[in-house]
Design a protein that fits this description.
Layout lengths: L8 E3 L2 E2 L6 E3 L2 E3 L2 E2 L13 E8 L4 E8 L5 E4 L16
Antiparallel strand pairs: 1-2, 1-5, 3-4, 6-7, 7-8
The structure holds zinc ion (ZN) (2 copies).
Length: 91
C-alpha cells in the first residue's frame, strides 16, 4: 500500500490539502509531495510527475516517482481494485 498520508504536501510554500485543487496565479495547481516515503526530498529535479489513467476510478492518479529510490507517491491512492490497463502494477 502507499504512504501518502505520511508525506507533507505543499503548494507555493504552504502545507496544502492534497485532495484539493488550488487556484494560483498560474492557473489551477495540485499540491505536490515534499518527500518520498523514504524521506528523500522531491524538488523539481528529483521527482518524475505523471498521470496514470485508472479504469477503476474513471479518472487519473497523479503519481510522483522519486528519482533517488523509485518509490511512488500517488493520489488518489492506488488500491487492489485499480485497473491501470497494464501500465502500472497495483502496489
Ligand atoms: Zn526516495
Ligand atoms: Zn487506479
Amino acid at each position: 500500500m502507499s504512504d501518502n498520508r505520511e508525506s507533507v504536501w505543499m503548494l507555493d510554500g504552504r502545507v496544502a490539502d492534497l485532495a484539493r485543487l488550488y487556484r494560483t496565479r498560474h492557473g489551477w495547481a495540485h499540491p505536490s509531495p515534499q518527500a518520498c516515503p523514504a524521506g528523500h526530498r522531491l524538488g523539481p529535479d528529483q521527482v518524475i510527475v505523471s498521470a496514470i489513467p485508472c479504469g477503476h476510478l474513471l479518472t487519473h492518479h497523479r503519481s510522483y516517482t522519486c528519482r533517488t529510490c523509485g518509490r511512488v507517491v500517488a493520489w488518489p491512492p492506488i488500491t487492489q481494485a485499480c485497473n491501470h490497463f497494464g501500465g502500472l502494477r497495483n502496489l
